[in-house]
Design brief:
Length: 295
């Protein structure tokens, strides 16, 4: 009798557990430049789609700029904004020529706000010119095994000779997220930043709108140009299992967010069939304006 009650109880529970068999079905990511999903600890590829297609990295370039600055710069140095830095196209911090900002604060602002002027100012501070800094970026890229990548600038603004791939950018993202200071910066949804005349603070908001929307996303960087379209490298962790995704070249920002969420959820469900029970009960905040093309 007791055995029969136990079996009935188990069957009753199973009736309310959803069917997770779809997790093993192949998915298709709607993007032009390639996509990849990688397990963080092992670098094992879970999913790839045109992952070796060369594509403009847009502001995902700033991941490399930040890593070099964090590893090779003096974080207490004041960075002086040059004429060349302040004339960079948007998005930017809007600082004036001659303004001084501590290197560490500038790295934060570059990653959160995606300031092109900040990226150029950092490059000029470390190597004198952006061109020399790009040589340093390419050397670092080769050391990381990014053999289908070439950098010509520190910001990711359009250049026919600047390109990367979803696979290379995933390798870069894994390396970057293993740096404590980097990972601490890119998980921030907003940042207090002193303005150019030092009279008041202003708040910079992250361009990564999955932060606070997807319950597990904790980084790392967005990108947008008219040529590259919308791009995103994302990091998310479910318990002790972390995934890195890269999606390059969606035509709309909302599509980029949706495709990244689908890719991450696909990977987590493969790892743990009970994952959707967690995912479905998390509260989500609305995603920002679709017409906002800040990268």
């Amino acid at each position: 009798m007791r055995k029969g009650i136990t079996i009935f109880f188990i069957l009753s529970i199973l009736m309310f557990i959803p069917n997770f068999t779809d997790a093993s079905d192949e998915i298709t990511i709607d993007c032009l430049g390639g996509a990849i999903l990688v397990e963080y600890k092992t670098s094992n590829v879970i999913y790839q789609q045109n992952a070796d297609t060369k594509w403009p990295p847009a502001s995902l370039t700033k991941i490399m700029t930040a890593i070099i600055a964090l590893e090779e710069g003096n974080l207490n140095d004041d960075v002086v904004f040059s004429v060349n830095a302040v004339k960079q196209e948007k998005s930017n911090l809007g600082l004036n020529e001659g303004v001084r900002v501590p290197l560490y604060k500038l790295i934060e602002a570059m990653l959160v706000k995606s300031g092109n002027d900040a990226a150029v100012a950092i490059a000029e501070h470390i190597d004198g010119t952006e061109e020399k800094f790009a040589e340093r970026m390419n050397k670092k890229a080769k050391n990381l095994g990014m053999f289908n990548t070439n950098f010509t600038n520190a910001s990711g603004l359009p250049d026919d000779d600047q390109y990367s791939t979803a696979r290379d950018l995933a390798n870069l993202a894994i390396y970057a997220m293993r740096q404590n200071e980097f990972s601490r910066i890119v998980c921030q949804r907003e940042l207090e930043f002193i303005n150019e005349d030092a009279t008041e603070n202003r708040t910079l908001y992250s361009t990564n709108k999955l932060l606070g929307h997807h319950p597990l996303v904790d980084g790392i960087k967005t990108g947008f140009t008219n040529k590259a379209h919308h791009c995103l490298a994302a990091s998310a962790a479910f318990r002790d299992y972390r995934l890195i995704s890269v999606v390059l070249g969606t035509k709309r920002k909302q599509m980029l967010l949706d495709e990244t969420e689908e890719l991450l959820d696909y990977g987590f469900e493969l790892h743990d069939p009970l994952y959707p029970l967690y995912r479905d009960y998390q509260l989500e905040s609305p995603i920002a304006d679709e017409n906002d093309n800040s990268d």
